[in-house]
Amino acid sequence: MAMRLHKHKTFKTGGIHPHDNKLSAQVAITPLPLPKMVTIPIIQHIGAPAKIVVNRGDMVKTGQIIATHEGFVSSNIHASVSGRVGVIEEVMDSTGFKHMAITIRVKGDDWEETIDRSDTLIEEIKLTPKEIVSRIMEAGVVGMGGAAFPSHVKLSVPEGKHVDHLLINGVECEPYLTADHRVMLEKPKEIIVGIKILMKALGVQKTIIGIEYNKADAIEIFQQLLKNEKHIGVEALEVQYPQGGEKQLIQALLNREVPSGGLPADVGVIVHNVGTTFAVYEAVQKNKPLLERVVTVTGKSVKQPSNFLVRIGTPVIDLLIAAGGVPEDTGKIVSGGPMMGKAIADLDVPVAKGTSGILLIPKDEASRSETYNCVHCGKCIEACPMGLEPYRLLIMSKKGNSQRAKEEHILDCIECGSCSFVCPSNRPILDYIRLGKTQLKKQKSV
Amino acid sequence: MSADLLTVSPSPHIHTDLTVPQIMRGVIIAMIPALLFSVYNFGLGAVYVTLLAILFCVVIEYAIARYLLKRPASIYDGSAIITGMLLAFNVPTNLPWHIILIGSAVAIGIGKMSFGGLGNNPFNPALVGRVFLLLSFPVEMTSWPKAGATWSLDAVTSATPLGILKDGLRAGDTVPELMNQMPSYTDFFFGLQGGSLGEMSAFAILLGLIYMLYRKIITWHIPVSMLATILLMTGIFWLIDPTRFANPVFHLLTGGIMLGAVFMATDYVTSPFTHRGMIIFGVGIGVLTVVIRLFGSYPEGVSFAILIMNAFVPLINSYAKQPRYGSKSQRHKAYQEKLEKEVKATP
Fold this sequence. Notes:
The structure holds two protein chains of two kinds.
Chain A: E1 29-31, E2 37-41, E3 51-52, E4 59-60, E5 65-68, E6 77-78, E7 83-92, E8 98-106, H1 129-138, H2 151-155, E9 165-169, H3 179-186, H4 188-202, E10 206-212, H5 216-225, E11 232-237, H6 246-254, E12 269-273, H7 274-285, E13 292-298, E14 306-311, H8 316-322, E15 330-335, E16 342-344, E17 357-362, H9 363-366, H10 379-383, H11 390-399, H12 402-407, H13 418-422, H14 429-445
Helix pairs in contact in A: 1-4, 3-5, 4-7, 11-14
Chain B: H1 20-42, H2 44-68, H3 79-89, H4 97-112, H5 125-136, H6 138-141, E1 144-145, E2 157-158, H7 161-170, H8 175-179, H9 185-190, H10 202-214, H11 221-240, H12 248-253, H13 257-264, H14 275-295, H15 302-319, H16 329-345
Antiparallel strand pairs in B: 1-2
C-alpha cells in the first residue's frame, strides 16, 4: 500500500478492514435486457406492506402503480415493465421469507406518458418542499443502500427537531459492491441536482458527500463539479467497514453521535444514499418512479463481473446469465454484500428496491469453518463499531437472558457482522445477537 | 451448475484469515528465537526440556479430554503445545524429566482442563505449573546451568543476576559492589546470563514481540504498560538510593520480566478484553513485580504478579468497558443546548 500523507476522516469506535475486492469497479452500467416475466413483492421496504390495486389479467404500463402504500411508513410499488398481470401469490424473496408478490408477463415496453425518459439534465427545481416530499412518496423511493427505509419518512423531520446537515452516503464500504460507485461516476450531475432537491425539501444549508478514498475517481468528479458550490462539499474517508452505516458516517463526517435508540435527526442530520439521491432526481425532475436500479453481479469466479441497470422484479438468474453464467464452483449466492447480504436459496428470487448486488461465493468459502471456545482475545470488542461487548451478548442470548442483554445495549447492535468476521474461534456471535433481539421483541409483544 | 444445493447461512459471509490455530502457530513462531538463543546458551538441554514439556502437555491434554472428560481431543488447536513451550521457558534446562512431567500434569490438569479446557481457565496454565514446581522443588528449580558452559546434558550450575543481587543485599553488600560480579548489559540484552530456559535473551523475546505485533496477534497495551510501570517504579527507587536498589535497565533485562510481558501476561484467556483493561492489568503486574522483587523474599516476582493479576481479570473486565457509541451523552447534550439557543435566537 502506498503511503498517504494525511489520514482521512473515519469513525472512531471499532471497525474492520476486509479485503475490498471491487472486481467490477471499472465496468460501466449496462441495461439488462427486458426479462420475460417479473415478480414484484409488495413489501420491499421497512414498514407495512403496500395494498395491491391490480387484478389478475389486467394490462399495466411501465411506471403504473400496482400497490399503494398503507400508512405513513410504507411505500408505493410500481410496475417495472408493461404487460399482463399474472398470478398474485406468496413467493420467496431475498429475505428468505414468503411475501405476497405480483407477477407481470412482459408484453412490449409501453411506458406511462407522464414519465420523461430522455437523458436531458433538468436543473431547475420547481416544486415546493411539500410537493417534493409527496412526489418522492408517490414514486415509491426507498433507501437504496440496503435497508430500504421509505425516503419520504426521512424527509419529514419530526416537530421540535432541527436539521442542519444533509449527508450523502457514497461510502459503499461493503466489499465487492460497486453499484453506488458506478452511479457516482456516470450520473454525478443528476446526483447533485438530487442533493439540491433534498436540501430544498429539508431546508438545510449544508451537505457533505462522504466517499471512501478507494473511489478516488468519484471523489475527483464531485470535487470538479462542486468547485463553485458553497453549500455542498465532498469528503474523502478512510476505507473502513462499516463506514456506510448511518451512525458511523455521522461520526466520521461530523463527530456527532446519535444517542442510543435515537435517530440521526436527534443530532441534526439526515443521511441519504447516493443511489437514493439519483432516484430522488428521477422521481422529482423526470416523474419517474423507482422501477429499476443498478445491481452489481460479482464474485471471484464470475466470468464478467458487471453492473446492470435492472428492472425491479427481474429474477436473479437473468442477471447471472448476463454476467457469463453461474460458475461450476458456486457454493453460495448472496443478495447484497458479503458482510450484511442475505444468502438466497434459489435463483428465481426477484431483484428488489434494496438489492445492491448479487455475490457468488465459491464452495470452499461458502460454509463456516470449525468453531473453538472463546479465547478471550477481545477482537470482537475491538471491532464493534457501536462499542458493545459482542462475546457477552452471545453468552446472554444463549442463556436466554435477554433482559440482561438489553441492559448491555443489545438493541444498539447494527448487525454489521464485524464481530463474527474477526472472531478467530469462528463463533456465530451475530447469529446469537439476532436471536437475543428476537427474544426481546417477543417479550415486548406478549 | 451441479445439482448441489446452495449454502444458506446468515451474514457475514466472509471471515478474517486469522483463526485460533493460526494464532497459536503465530505464537509458537514468535517463541522460536528465544528457544534458539537458549540452545546456543545452554546446549542440548534446552531442546530436551522443551520437547519433553511439549510432549507431556499434549499427551496429558489428550488423555484428559478423551478418557476423563469423554469428549473429542482438544489438542489440535495448538494451545497445549504453547503451554508446554511456556512451561519449558520457565524452568532451568537441567531439570530432571520427572519434574517436567509433574509440572506438565499440574499445568494442563489443574491449570487448564479442570476448568474446562481452552478458554475457560482463569490462570495461565504454564505459570500454574511453574509456581507449583517452584514451591515443590525449590532446589531443582533454582539450580541454573551456567550460560555457555557446556553442550552436554550435565551442566555446571550458577546463580542468576537477580539471585546474586538478592543474596548480596542480604549479606550487606551494596548494589555497585554486586554489579561488578555481573555480566555486562550487552550480555544481559542478548541473553548471556544464567536463568530459565527462555527468559534470558531480551533481544530474542523482542523479536517475538515484533512478530506478534506485526501479525496483529497481540496489541502493545499489556507489554508496554507493564514494562513502563516497572521502568518507572524501579527508576524512582534507584534515584532514592542507588546503593540499595539496582537501576531500572538491570531490572528490565534480568529475570522473567521480558518473557512475562511478551508471552505470559498477553495470554488472551487470562488477560482482560478491552485495551483499557489491558493497561490496568499491565500496570498491576508491573507494580506487583517490583514490590515482590524489591521487598519480597523471592529474587523474582513476575510469575506471582501475573497469577495474582489473573485473579483480578473478571473484576477488570466488568469495570474497564469499551466506550460505547452514543454514550458520550455530554457531547450530545452540548449540541442540543447549542441548538436550543439558536432556535431561541431566531425570531
